[in-house]
Design brief:
- By secondary structure, this protein is mainly beta.
- The chain has one domain: Jelly Rolls (Sandwich).
- It is built from 2 helices and 10 strands.
- The strands form 2 sheets. Strands 3, 4, 5, 6, 7, 8, 9 and 10 form an 8-stranded antiparallel sheet that branches. Strands 1-2 form a two-stranded parallel sheet.
- It starts with 5 loop residues before the first strand and ends in a 5-residue tail after the last helix.
């Protein structure tokens, strides 16, 4: 009989697969994150190793990104994301079910529009954690 994959609520030890809890992907059990421009976001890490995988949720918010510190894989779980590059001014819209990679160094406008926006992100751990510390955040 095959062993069941580890859940994200368990400690990852032994190199086996880590199952991401569907309830977390649906936005349940997220913890309050930092407030930006009076808007509170929510966050839950689902894996930490050489990479960090996490679920992030926010109400509508637009922000400027200057020189993104890490490559970031994004899977849109709910809502709509509009990314407009500073170099070309082209807006790219991503909706529920879309996925993308935003490269390190990207600059532009990051806008979460409509209702609740939720995403699964995957980033390289060391650079991500360093960037959060430099921003004074405790990831």
């Amino acid at each position: 009989m095959a062993e069941q994959a580890t859940t994200t609520e368990q400690t990852h030890a032994g190199g086996g697969p880590v199952r991401i809890d569907p309830a977390v992907l649906a936005g349940q059990g997220l913890e309050p994150g930092p407030e930006q421009d009076g808007v509170r976001s929510f966050f839950k890490s689902v894996f930490e190793g050489d990479i960090v995988a996490a679920v992030y949720e926010s109400p509508p918010l637009a922000m400027q990104v200057e020189d993104l510190w890490y490559d970031e894989f994004i899977y849109v779980l709910a809502g709509e994301l509009v990314l407009t590059g500073a170099d070309d001014g082209v807006a790219h819209t991503f909706r529920t079910g879309d996925h993308l990679v935003l490269p390190k160094g990207w600059c532009g406008t990051w806008e979460m529009v409509g209702g609740t926006y939720r995403e699964l992100i995957v980033v390289e751990a060391q650079t991500y954690l360093q960037s959060m510390q430099e921003l004074g955040l405790d990831p």
